[in-house]
Amino acid sequence: MNLRRTAAMSRKEFIQILRDPRSLVIAVFLPLIQILMLGYGARLDANHIPVYVFDQEGSQDSQALLKAFQASPYFDVVTTVNNYRALVRAIDSDQAKLGIVIPWNFSQRLDDAGRTSVQALLDGTDDNSAQLAEGYAQAVVQTYAGNMQLDWFARYGLAQQAASPLSVDYRTWFNEDLESKNFIIPGTVALVMALMGALLSSLTIAREWERGTMEQLIATPVTAMEIMVGKLGPYLVIGLADAALCAMFSVGWFGVPFRGGLGAFFITTTLFLIVILGIGYMISVATRNQLGASQYALLVTMLPTAMLSGFAFPIDQMPAPIRAITYVVYSRYYVSALKRIFLSSAGLGDLVPEIVAMSIYAVVIGVFATRAFRKSLQ
Amino acid sequence: MYDRIWRMIIKEFLQLRRDKHARFILVVPPILQMLIYGYAATFEVNRVEIAVIDFDHSQESRDLLSRFTFTGRFEVAKILSNEDELKSLIGRSDIPMALKIEPGFAELLLKGQTAHLQVIVDGTNSNTALIAVGYVNQIANQFAQDYALNRLNQVMPAMAVSVPQIDLEQRPWYNPDLNSQWFFVPGVIGSITLILVVNLTAFAIVREREIGTLEQVMVTPIRPFELILGKTIPFFIVGLADVVLVAVVGTLWFQVPFRGNLLVLLLGVVLFLLSTLGVGLLISTLSSTQQQAFASGFFFVNPAFILSGFAFPITSMPKAMQMITYLDPLRYFLIILRGTFLKGVGFDVLWPQMLALAILTSVLLLVSVARFRKSID
């Protein structure tokens, strides 16, 4: 590999990028839009769940319970309806995610039998939101019931029996307030990198093939290796700059903590970019067609990074065969490294398994990418 | 006129048939995406691995801990004997949750005081952690209730029966087992259609422009409007075929119910396809190279995807973001998809979505057609 020729290749590529203002827009705005969209849009916290209430009893007790729902930050009691049909309709038409029905004999059963019930009708379409709403509703009702029990014990002079036998103390590590933004945003850096790499490398090279300028390049004395390194080098630099931009935005704008080492961040990012760029390069060498290259690249870089890396969907909840596949998905290691670098102050030493796995990938992909091109030259 | 449009359509189909990449893109990625989403996209929380440290070794502590495995939500992966192990396990993110019971747990219970269960949670995945915490609360609550009643029962059995209790009876509708697949599979139909149709339309036009064949088409007697129809009708048909393919594979493979009216769904599909064609056309007027088309497409498709409510609920977004979602055609289509598949609701419930989608589609088509005519004049 001749350094001078490689540098010349890189310079040509850089000039080409700079001349096309759109490429610059892609390089700067795409990551920004991406991180803003995901930072604001990709939230899983269930707050302000719209609630419709059907209070069949309308007693003091039932009203007190409803007040407890109103006071909860997780629920917005939108309105009270006075028939079941209206409640059904509200859930059917997405106006309400939770419908609370207090039966007509709510306090009567409490007085007679000591035990009464409330109905929570949930829109189960979105199973995750439903599950969260269920947990919060349960907490509201149990807290209310607990207070009622305290009163009851006091009224019957059983105060010594009133102490709750068990309390749960939580210690939450790494994402202390359990905010979904801290969970999602670190992984978006991987998504942005996957997208940029696939987009830039696969399209620019496929374009040279489509336009026939690749033959001109081949006719010059540059070797296959030099073409690859020279072409991908600028994108690696852009990718690293974008990663830094994303990280700054995550921390400065969204307030995500960054507790780990910068060295670990840039080393893992470089390894990831090498793999992504290498894959994009191979695809464009193989397809020589921009539409094909872009769609294949999305399929092998974006899709696994979004779906199988643990970015949003927890790997341990996937069926066993899919879990096995995730070990082959290189993004898995990068996303796991990113989350630990941002949230749990992981340094290089803590990330040895991830770094080893990604290094193996980088070498293998690098070798294959050079080979792929050599073949197509013949 | 019909003859010219017809020939144009035949030309497009011939081109699609000869392009092996396009053929592949139309069939393989949609099915692959459907399968991956169906299997991997889940926010469910089952068999959470936990580590336990029991410093009390009493019957009471064992009773409490055994309740965790009994629910099936948790799986005791490690039984530890000292705190350092616990710290390193959680620190390395090897295990998402640990339970700790201090010595003297049973003694406090017996004295009628409050005993403590310490739960150490890795909050990195906030969603899993939140749901798991919900389960822990339920288990702990049940344990406390049982213990308190038992205690009262021994002192004064007559009173124990009348301790006030409230049960929350939960009825998740439409998806009683809260199965993630039922949520994601209808959504995938929408997202795949969006990505595929926008990209295909934009690329097809820009490519002709890039290669220079668009000019050749323009010197033929075809009129701009006929050209637009000739270019979009094939992608409409292809998009429709893909919707059917993905919907059939998704519902049969993952056994997602279809409870609504096919005609209502079809109306939604047609409106949505038209809006994606409008977007594709619009992007083609904004781009002179395929790379630009791809990037512009992404600037639209990606936000449209994230803001649609496909995976992330719209109600959880900041208010300003929620406003933007009203401009997203996929938002309305997803409500129509889930409404017809899971809720089984009809036009009487879905008409606002249909209306919004129709308005959005008309505006998109008007703007893009106007721009397209200008760009080829």
Description:
The complex is a heterodimer of chains A (378) and B (377). Chain A has two domains: 3-43 and 180-377, no CATH class; 49-161, abc type-2 transporter like domain (abc type-2 transporter like fold, 3-Layer(aba) Sandwich). Helix content of chain A is 67%, strand content 10%. Chain A contains 14 helices and five strands. Chain A has a four-stranded mixed β-sheet with strand order 2-1-3-4, sandwiched between helices. In chain A, helix 9 packs across helix 10. The radius of gyration of chain A is 28 Å and the shape is elongated. Chain B is α/β, with parallel strands linked by helices and 377 residues long. Chain B has 15 helices and five strands. Chain B is elongated. At the A-B interface, helix 2, helix 4, strand 4, helix 6 and strand 5 of A face helix 2, strand 4, helix 6, strand 5 and helix 8 of B. Strand 5 of chain A pairs parallel with strand 4 of chain B, so a sheet runs across the interface.
User: How can the largest sheet of chain B be summarized?
Assistant: 4 strands, mixed
Mean pLDDT level of chain B: 87
Mass-distribution shape of chain A: elongated
Total strand segments of chain B: 5
> Helices and strands of chain A, in N-to-C order?
HHEHEHEHEHEHHHHHHHH
Q: Which H/E pattern describes the elements of chain B?
A: HHEHEHEHEHHEHHHHHHHH
Instruction: Identify the most extensive interface between protein chains.
Output: A-B, 117 and 114 residues
Q: Structural class of the helices, strands and pairings of chain B?
A: alpha/beta
Q: Rounded to an integer, what's the Rg of chain B over CA atoms?
A: 29 Å
Main sheet of chain B: which strands, in order across? 2-1-3-4
C-alpha termini separation of chain A: 19 Å
Strand order of the main beta sheet of chain A, please?
Answer: 2-1-3-4
| Total helical elements of chain A | 14
